[in-house]
Specification:
The protein has 411 residues and is of the alpha/beta class. It is built from 17 helices and nine strands. Strands 7-6-5-4-3-2-1-8-9 form a nine-stranded mixed β-sheet, with helices on one face. The two termini are 24 Å apart. It binds iron/sulfur cluster (SF4) (2 copies). The site of one iron/sulfur cluster has 12 residues, from loops. One of its GO terms (biological process) is pyrroloquinoline quinone biosynthetic process.
């Protein structure tokens, strides 16, 4: 395992400030508080350890500094960003600064009065999440009764003239409903539909055994999506990305570590990707203590995986490294224990068999089956977060499976 507490001289030589492009996309995670309890939430499982939130003035400083650096796209996210009463103030500031703004929301709390205020403040775009096209599954997966409310919110968003992305995270429970999810998005007048196959970080990694689909489910869903794309043309643009575990090459994660994306967590920690906090041995600088320019260009955390100098074999000498940059550091850590390894999604990785076994385990049961030995699905809530944070083990079930695979046991 790489010692992340010490700077890697290779990395230092690769990451000269004058070679680093400015950030383009700022994600402001305003709060980890959320009325929903999604089983696939990408927030850290120990989010209750990070409950402090920046003040309005501190967020405004972040927006100004990020814009001065060159960031142009701004997402307000969370948790649920509508729980911040100053959201409209921040949107107004962002508008004045010239950001293109997107609100990423569950819709809970998005009343007509707030839509009026957000419109007046200059919000450009809204991304509304659904868990499924059926009330039963939507409400089960979020552990709330919110389906009907979300439908009313979708109608209000359109009535206020906002462009709308409908987002639905896909997994073995709802992949068979893809046609109905598309029909729902069309009926609601969404301009875009993001069918986001689950990425296995945070709560989704903890619930991986329950959420992992079969290859057949994915193939069938993709065929449905392609059929709809032909039928509906430009009426609604549908995004569908196959999950990493079913590929043999990793994705160019975040378009590169510290390349275009700058995330600010509710407490002010600056992150090169949403889930970077799960990596050991890295201290993420806080915007309340360090200027954003210094964080982006000079901090150890943002320079650690820039360039190619940090890579080990097989990535170091691989002729494809400029295409995928070795994949995802968080996935490499979660599945191999070392964030400097090749993303094991890659079939050149000596640990690729690990991914194959997880997929194979999913294929051995029908989507309805759940092995008796599995723990129940874990909802994202404060009690579970505190329990996971207290045990220092943020991913018990998947970790057990990962460790068993590493020991050479079949799952
Ligand atoms: S995924 Fe669900 S629980 Fe997590 S922040 Fe979004 S709405 Fe809240
Ligand atoms: S070995 Fe590394 S650089 Fe090469 S294709 Fe695989 S992940 Fe990408």
């Amino acid at each position: 395992m790489t010692d992340l507490s010490r700077p890697d001289p290779n990395t230092q030589t690769e990451a000269k400030p004058d070679a680093i492009a400015p950030p383009l996309w700022l994600l402001a995670e305003l709060t980890y508080r959320c009325p929903l309890h999604c089983v696939f939430c990408y927030n850290p499982t120990n989010y209750t350890d990070h409950s402090r939130e920046l003040t309005t003035a501190q967020w405004i400083d972040v927006l100004r500094e990020a814009r001065a650096l060159g960031a142009a796209q701004l997402g307000f996210s969370g948790g649920e960003p509508l729980l911040r009463e100053d959201l409209e103030v921040l949107v107004g500031e962002a508008r004045q600064l010239g950001f293109y703004t997107n609100l990423i929301t569950s819709g809970i709390g998005l009343t007509d009065a707030r839509l009026d205020a957000l419109k007046a403040a200059g919000l450009d775009h809204i991304q509304l999440s659904f868990q499924d096209s059926t009330q039963e599954l939507n409400d089960f997966l979020s552990s709330t009764r919110t389906f009907d409310l979300k439908k009313r919110v979708a109608a209000s968003i359109k009535a206020h003239g906002f462009p709308m992305v409908l987002n639905c995270v896909l997994h073995r429970f709802n992949l068979p409903h893809v046609d109905r999810i598309i029909d729902m998005a069309l009926a609601m007048g969404a301009e875009y539909l993001e069918l986001a196959n689950t990425q296995y970080y945070g709560w989704a990694h903890t619930n991986r055994a329950q959420l992992m689909p079969t290859a057949e489910q994915l193939q069938e869903a993709e065929a449905v999506v392609n059929r709809y794309r032909k039928e509906i043309g430009e009426r609604c643009k549908i995004f569908f990305v196959v999950p990493d575990y079913f590929e043999t090459r990793p994705k160019r994660c975040m378009n590169g570590w510290g390349a275009v994306f700058l995330g600010i967590a509710p407490d002010g920690a600056a992150l090169p990707c949403h889930t970077a906090r799960s990596l050991p041995g890295l201290t993420f600088p806080n915007v309340t203590e360090t200027p954003l320019r210094e964080i982006w260009y000079e901090s150890d955390a943002f320079n650690r995986f820039r360039g190619f100098g940090w890579m080990k074999e097989p990535c170091r000498s691989c002729d494809e490294k400029e295409r995928d940059l070795g994949g995802c550091r968080c996935q490499a850590y979660l599945l191999t224990g070392d964030p400097a390894n090749a993303d094991p999604v890659c079939d050149k990785s000596p640990e690729h068999e690990h991914v194959v076994q997880v997929v194979r385990a999913a294929a051995t049961r029908t989507p309805e089956q759940q092995p008796a030995k599995e723990q129940p699905i874990l909802f994202r809530n404060d009690a579970n977060s505190r329990r996971l944070a207290a045990t220092g083990d943020s991913r018990p079930q998947a970790q057990d499976q990962d460790q068993a695979i590493s020991r050479g046991e079949r799952t």
